[in-house]
Amino acid sequence: MNNPIISITNLSKSYKVHNVLKNLNWQVEQGDIVALLGKNGAGKSTLLESIMNLREINQGEIKLWNHSWPALSQENREKIGFVAQDNVGFEWMRVQDFLAYLGGFFTHFDKNYCAKIIDGWGLNPKKKVADLSGGQKQILHVIQALSIKPELLILDEPVAHLDPSMRRKFISKLIDLSCEHNTTVIFSSHIISDLERIANKVALLKDGKINSYYEVEQLKSHIAYLKIQSDQPLEQSEYFNELSNWHSHAQGATASILSPLNKSLQQFIKESPHPIEITPMTLEDWYLEMNNEAI
User: Fold this and answer.
1) Domain assignment of residue 166, yes or no
2) How confident is the model at residue 295 (pLDDT cuts 50, 70, 90)?
3) Which residue range forms the structural domain that includes residue 15?
4) What does the DSSP assignment read for 228-267?
5) Residue 156 belongs to what H/E stretch?
6) Residue at a domain's end among 218, 235, 258
7) Which of 151, 213, 262, 285 could form a disulfide with 79 if both were Cys (CB 3.0 to 4.6 A apart)?
8) CA 263, CA 252: separation in Å to the nearest integer?
9) Is the residue at 111 inside a domain?
């Protein structure tokens, strides 16, 4: 097991009477690329901003490299890249000046790498930040974060305004960065197909906690829709108690597997008291089912 870069214990955060995070516990290990999923308002931005010490928490402890933020060395702080959901400021600067200015705060800022990305992504270095489109502003902040060659990269909805071509370029850069520097990435997005291409772990933030946290490939090999066949309606027996969304019907029942079972899917089907047909489930299907939004 790798060493955890982020350790969170009993984290709680409230806004007036609204409890957003509730005794949340979570560890993120070095080298992981984590897809952070959750409904709008679930607290994803609050969680990521709390990790970055941008939100004052009500309770709990957050450690990066086994240190609380006040005890974190300047060297480690410079290893963190962060792209917020909404970025404002510096509108009067030109793109090249903005990147050079912020890059000056990071020892490992790679200006040649930065210039290469600017050119590859078609961003005009002489254009003012104020004149950039929403997508171009997102790219600008992503370029800044990538160019410091971070060991920890936290991204809050960084591709919401990007077209599919730019999202693919962005994902390619993340993969390169992770492979070259063993960078740990937490990536929040509603575009689950993008997350599925790059993440090796998926975390679901629900009801103020990390409700589920799995290896993506392990999860995808287990989740499925099931049709359980019988000559009469079936009630959910003990054998099927790990299944979700059970619905009886005239010729058996339907259900879903939303978390890895205690036995392999093949063994579960083989030992079932009734024949089972399976239909694979995508990560997006799983997310919708977990939030009771499937249609």
Assistant:
1) yes
2) very low
3) 4-218
4) EE-SS-----GGGTT-EEEEEETTEEEEEE-S--SS-HHH
5) strand 152-156
6) 218
7) 151
8) 22
9) yes
- 274/132 same-domain check: no
- Tokens 């210039």, residue located: 115
* 8 Å CB contact between 153 and 51: no
Query: Is residue 121 located within the same domain as residue 54?
Result: yes
Tens-place pLDDT, residues 214-247: 999 999 999 999 999 999 999 999 999 999 999 9
Dist CA 80 CA 250 (whole Å): 56
- Tell me the C-alpha distance between 130 and 58, whole Å: 36
Where is pLDDT greater, at 224 or 174?
224
Number of domains in the chain: 2
Q: How far, in Å, CA of 168 to CA of 171, rounded?
A: 5
Q: Are residues 156 and 247 in the same domain?
A: no
Residues 175 and 271 in one domain: no
Structure tokens at 184: 């740990």
Dihedrals phi, psi of 235, to nearest 5 degrees: -90, 155
Return the residue matching tokens 């990435």: 185
Residues 127 and 232 in one domain: no
Give the position of tokens 């689950």: 192
Contact 33, 174 (CB under 8 A): yes
